[in-house]
Design a protein that fits this description.
The protein is an alpha+beta fold and 70 residues long. Helices cover 61% and strands 14% of the residues. Helix 1 packs antiparallel against helix 2. The radius of gyration is 15 Å and the shape is elongated.
Length: 70
């Protein structure tokens, strides 16, 4: 149970960092860069964030399902 909870927190943290680190790219404002590195179109960037949030939700659900009920 603990490993799923930790994995869920890691994925949630990655999603928050990706969301907060996003800013428009200087040469093409319709694209995003992450902390000054690279360039992605908004659809791809948002799909990466959605994947991280989905992974976090799945791991939190697994942690909840495998929790020992005392």
């Amino acid at each position: 149970m603990l490993r799923y909870f930790v994995a869920g927190n890691v994925w949630a943290f990655v999603a928050v960092v990706l969301t907060l680190g996003r800013r428009p790219w200087r040469t093409a404002p319709t694209r995003y860069e992450f902390l000054g590195q690279g360039s992605l179109d908004p659809t791809g960037y948002n799909l990466i964030i959605a994947f991280c949030v989905t992974a976090a939700a799945i791991f939190f659900l697994l942690a909840w399902k495998t929790h020992d009920k005392h």
